[in-house]
Amino acid sequence: MLRFNAANNFNVPVGNVDFNANVVEALTDYFNIVANREITWQSMDFRRFFNQVHLNEEDLVYLDPPYLITFSEYNKLWNKQTETDLLTILNILNEQHIRFAISNVTHYKGRINNIFLEWAEAYNIHPIHSNYISYHDNTIKQFNEVLVTNF
What we know:
Helix content: 25-40%
Distance between the termini: 28 Å
Number of helices: 4
CATH class of the largest domain: Alpha Beta
Largest sheet: 5 strands, mixed
CATH superfamily of the largest domain: Vaccinia Virus protein VP39
Order of helices and strands: EEHHEHEEHEE
Shape: globular
Structural class: alpha+beta
Number of strands: 7
CATH topology of the largest domain: Rossmann fold
CATH architecture of the largest domain: 3-Layer(aba) Sandwich
């Protein structure tokens, strides 16, 4: 919802979504909820992160990785190997009874993420219904997005 440019000035978010009263309310609700929780944010390669973090059964890991089959700037370093590495780590978390949720795109413009689809069959798949808009293309998109959980 909030984006800043290289000069640290606010700029229009993806999809030309305005900063309005609904956004302020959603952000206020979010900050009120997280203020009373012990939440840790990290920014590093996921393999390194999972090698050094100590999780337990009370933790919940949420992941929103780059989507293997879509086209955007932040997806260009994501490939079948990184996808497989992440799914392997989630299987290990599941064996350790650590809850996780991961969002991903399974179908996009005729492409299918079979790696993710086959892996997800062992877990709970929740469809996400949305039509993302972008600055360059506000048409109805042909894609399926899901949230997969192990709880």
